[in-house]
Amino acid sequence: MFRALASVLLCCFFLEASFWVHFSYGDLTTCSGIVPMTERGDKISITDFGGVGDGQTLNTIAFRKAIYRIQHLRRRGGTLLFVPSGVYLTDSFNLTSHMTLYLARGAVMKATQDTSNWPLIAPLPSYGRGRERPGGRYMSFIHGDGLEDVVITGENGTIDGQGDIWWNMWRQRTLQFTRPSLVEFVNSRGIVISNVIFRNSPFWNIHPVYCSDVVIRYVTILAPPDSPNTDGIDPDSSSNVCIEDSFISTGDDLVAVKSGWDEYGIAYGRPSSYITVRRVTGSTPFAGVAVGSETSGGVENVWCSHQD
């Protein structure tokens, strides 16, 4: 009874027109040409910076050192950060522009469950406060703000938010601030996320907000059906977003198009527009593809097809 077709909730909302130039391969329509997958000339490994994939060593410093190196050396064409097979425990960290985070087969990046040191950031201006609690919010596990040309991809490696500790805090009403998303990009463009498994997000899984030119494809997103607010993909006040060829099974909407909350979203005034969702399958106790519930900034030109 909990299975939902990904087209369930959008039947009254989507428009028949779409911004996208559709690239066709035989009978298959794809968004693959919209944001090119950049071939990085420079490649480094997290092990070069002391990363240890034993599931116990905390690798936060290794990831931050590697990304600092990418940011400050600025190699022509950007840099690929390779994460080999193993389990890499780490705190939250920021990405930088012109980089690829590449997870090899068997690579698992796990979020620490020590919430006491989790970074806090300001609320989004289109929300005015944390989504769950007044004040700030916890930063996403993997975060990017003001970036361009960023790729998260690999050989179906896993990003695991270990969200059960956060779900329990929500159930017990002990949260001080809004839970972190698993991956969030803010004010960014030219983002590609593909061929990665996302598990057990504390809150929303993939949240591009105030972004443009975003492609999310060939991803698997998994969370228990009773995990609270674990939306799969939430384009929020973003434009030119393509979501396709993915499997999502979570405790909330598979895809939810958003644009801010109440008077804050109205004042910020940035709609979500030109959103394509196709060939997304999965299961959920809620909506397959939803518009909202946060839509104060407006939603326009959403195109949805071939859900199953």
TrEMBL record:
InterPro entries hit by this protein: GH28_Enzymes (IPR051801), Glyco_hydro_28 (IPR000743), Pectin_lyas_fold (IPR012334), Pectin_lyase_fold/virulence (IPR011050)
Signal peptide from the UniProt entry: 1-26
UniProt keywords, alphabetically: Glycosidase, Hydrolase, Signal
GO annotation, biological process: carbohydrate metabolic process
UniProt KW Signal keyword: yes
GO molecular function: polygalacturonase activity
Cited Gene3D superfamilies: Single-stranded right-handed beta-helix, Pectin lyase-like (2.160.20.10)
Pfam families tied to this protein: Glyco_hydro_28
UniProt family annotation: Belongs to the glycosyl hydrolase 28 family.
PANTHER family per UniProt: PECTIN LYASE-LIKE SUPERFAMILY PROTEIN, PECTIN LYASE-RELATED
Protein name: Pectate lyase superfamily protein domain-containing protein
Organism (species): Gossypium raimondii (Peruvian cotton)
